[in-house]
Amino acid sequence: MSTAVRNDDSGLRAAPKGGSGLRKQSKADASRERVLEAAAKTFSERGYAGTTMRDIARAADLQAGSLYYHYPSKELLIEAVIDKGIHNITNAVVNTIATLPPSTSYADRVRAAIQAHLHALLTYSAFASASRHLLAQVPVEVRRKHVLRREAYEEFWLGLLQSSQAAGETRDGVDLRLARTFILGGLNSALDWYRPEGKSIEELADQFAMMVEGGILIDRPD
Amino acid sequence: MSTAVRNDDSGLRAAPKGGSGLRKQSKADASRERVLEAAAKTFSERGYAGTTMRDIARAADLQAGSLYYHYPSKELLIEAVIDKGIHNITNAVVNTIATLPPSTSYADRVRAAIQAHLHALLTYSAFASASRHLLAQVPVEVRRKHVLRREAYEEFWLGLLQSSQAAGETRDGVDLRLARTFILGGLNSALDWYRPEGKSIEELADQFAMMVEGGILIDRPD
DNA sequence: GTCTATATTTTGATAGAC
DNA sequence: GTCTATCAAAATATAGAC
Would you say residue B53 lies in a domain? Predict the structure, then answer.
């Protein structure tokens, strides 16, 4: 019953300093990564202004001053976090859909998208949470850029639903834009209540897909 | 098609200072109210730590020092905002359901609850937004109390769905707790994208009810 | 790369005049 | 009730030793 295609790709890999194309993954990169993870966790828990550079430093096992070797300011740090939060999900979903066999029904495509979205959301939950809840609190320029990226992702979902409609697989009378926000809103709410001790992400996805199909897609004969 | 029962009640009316039961609604109360509105708006836009007392004062047309005549601290101010945000919605929904004729079907009850929830959410959106997005950023004691209130509200919804199930009006195989979070997550997401220029709240509610019924409740003959 | 100062600015809150 | 200072604490970011 579950459609288990998936494809992670965080995007955003820092280029090596040198100039030639050779990868030189080393200590600095590892620290930078640790700082970013610490920032995501702390920002998502306390908000943008509520998080101090000292908080992040403590979570990354560093002193506050040392953060500035890796990121030049608090603003660019939250930007990197939000960026990754959006990319994680977008890449996972887009890649998953791209990998499906061309003959896949739209109901199954939507099901796979739900699966991929939920999986990325809950696997990188600190990044996802930051990019969902903190956009409003962030400096305007950062916000503007990422609102556009989010809209692009939402547009991808709309396309999915529109194709589904064109194929006669959606229920009559449903406003596809509203259906899209309803679906994404329901999925994203998992950030607020999901606990790994409970149902697995796959079970969650199956349940959600079932509700979405029954409500938005026409019942189809098994 | 729309179930237009509704019942607003903000709760939270400050008692008059005097001691006897006589209402003395006057200048202080008006200012206090203005401060609360300003706080809700500013907190919801910039987060808890991101909002300064000076920001709130400006939005309320006062000087920063003057706020402390009405509220003793920033912490009690956000608490009042969050409190009102939760009460607005809970009261609206509970009162709406209580007012329905006993013979009302569960599908219609859910539809009325969706209508009332959406209406309260979007009418007092600054308060609702603060109590939804800022809980994590608020001092622990405030948070603990309001998490309980939110859970009580969610429990009310679960009861609604369970009664529906007992009456044979829900679709087989659906996990009611998940259905509840999915519904509320989808509805609450309207905070992020609803614009008064577009569809009316009633139209929105009808669309959402239709999706929920088709997905979660058994299709019923018209 | 990471540390230990430290400057500069901003914040929540108070005091006292009106 | 609201204003104008002002205090004390905390924050971002920088400088320079190691």
Answer: no
Distance CA A138, CA B166 (A): 47
Whether A167 is covered by a domain: the verdict is: yes
Residues of chain B with pLDDT under 50: 1-4, 10-21, 218-222
Q: Which nucleotides of C are covered by protein (CB under 7 A)?
A: 1-5, 10-16
The CATH number of whichever domain residue B125 belongs to comes to 1.10.357.10
| pLDDT reported for residue A214 | 82
Please list, residue by residue across B25-51, b when 16 or more beta carbons sit within 10 angstroms of its beta carbon and e when fewer do.
eeeebebbeebbbbbbbbbbbbbbbbb
Residue range of the domain that includes A165? 75-216
Is the distance between the Cβ of A53 and the closest atom of strand D smaller than 7 Å?
yes
The pLDDT value given to residue A46: 95
Confidence at residue B19, expressed as pLDDT on a 0 to 100 scale: 43
Please indicate, yes or no, if residue B136 is contained in any of the structural domains: yes
Statement: residue A54 has pLDDT above 90: yes
Number of domains in chain B: 1
- Domain membership of residue B26 (yes or no) is no
Whether the Cβ atoms of residue B189 and residue A185 lie closer than 8 Å to each other: yes
Query: pLDDT tens for residues B166-178?
Result: 988 888 888 999 9
Residue A216 pLDDT greater than 80, yes or no: no
Interface of B with A (CB under 8 A): 45-50, 133-134, 136-137, 171, 173-175, 178-179, 181-190, 192-193, 199, 204, 207-208, 210-216
Q: What is the largest CA-CA distance in chain A?
A: 63
| Contact flag A136-B45 (C-beta cutoff 8 Å) | yes
* CA B211 to C1' D7, whole Å: 58
